[in-house]
Amino acid sequence: MKALFLESPGQYPRFDVKEIPLPRIESDEILIKVQACGFCYHDRLIISGQLKRGVTFPLVLGHEISGLVVKRGCHVKDLTPGDRVVCLPTDACGLCENCGKNKTNQCNKGIALGHNAQGGLAEFVKVRAFSAIKIPDNIGWDQAAILACPIGVGLEALSLVKAPKTKQIAVITGAGGGLGIHLVQLAKMKGFRVIAITSDDRKEPIILEMGADQVVVNEEIGFSEIINAITSDEGADLILDTVGSPLWPQTFRSLSKRGLLITLGEVTGEEIRLNLAELIFRGATITGHVGVSKNSVVESVHLVHEKRINPVVWKTFPMENILDASKSLGNQNQLGRIVLTPNWI
């Protein structure tokens, strides 16, 4: 089979398409013919060499995978060849204590696809059958690839939040990005008044269409002043930050007393400064979130199937054009997720 290998990361990364043997599946695994694979900042940070922990090269990237089951192990009963599936980003065992608690992204025997194991930028990929979720025919391959990440990740993050009281406000940064545009929809569905932050006013009509109550374009004045003006200096009850350090401390300054800031993204890897006295006197909570459980992916499939959530794919690129995709990521015109498709289909 063909696979796209990242041979070396850095300013001038080197990729190579290689012919390698088909993965040999174990009794609890399935072989999937890859149809589409999402591309996000996690991939870009590995390509640039900024994300190094647990990564070895050469590496086949790709953790947002949709495809067709072509073979199953002898102990697999729930999936058969021909089934359409989306994969968990972490190939989980389904048997350990964490999997039993629906913490499949913390599986004791978990394998991070596209990070420390072969990912989806290949003709075929193998996963444990537990880590594949069936998808209905009315969800296209490109849309299916982003059911786990970013949609399931957003669902999982919002599961940390209590149902909002009347008029509670959620601020979402990077609202036009692959994760942000789906958080807008999910936060609105949960009952928040959604204020979306974007860097480009051309995205405003679509972000409003996706459910935002108000769009704030991040300009020189700093969006925290605008958020505090909108909320009569009360601040936002919830901030879902998909950008990270480039928007600090604006995100923290937008937070209400006793508010919750959930960090889901970090696009540059820069350090931030935090005055702990401000955190103490604000009584706020700052937490990070990564990964997605199987239950959240099952729910995201259901929501998309019922057309309650709209998967937003901005552009598709052939897998061999991954460097073009990487350059496009973060483009001010980007609205939604980038998806890669195998050239050899």
UniProtKB/TrEMBL annotation:
Enoyl reductase (ER) domain residues: 10-340
GO molecular function: alcohol dehydrogenase (NAD+) activity; zinc ion binding
Matches recorded under SMART domains: PKS_ER
InterPro entries associated with the record: ADH-like_C, ADH-like_N, ADH_Zn_CS, ER, GroES-like_sf, NAD(P)-bd_dom_sf
GO cellular component: cytoplasm
PANTHER family, per the entry: ALCOHOL DEHYDROGENASE 1-RELATED, VACUOLAR PROTEIN SORTING-ASSOCIATED PROTEIN 11
Family according to the record: Belongs to the zinc-containing alcohol dehydrogenase family.
Protein name, as recorded: Enoyl reductase (ER) domain-containing protein
Species per Swiss-Prot/TrEMBL record: marine metagenome
Lineage: unclassified sequences, metagenomes, ecological metagenomes
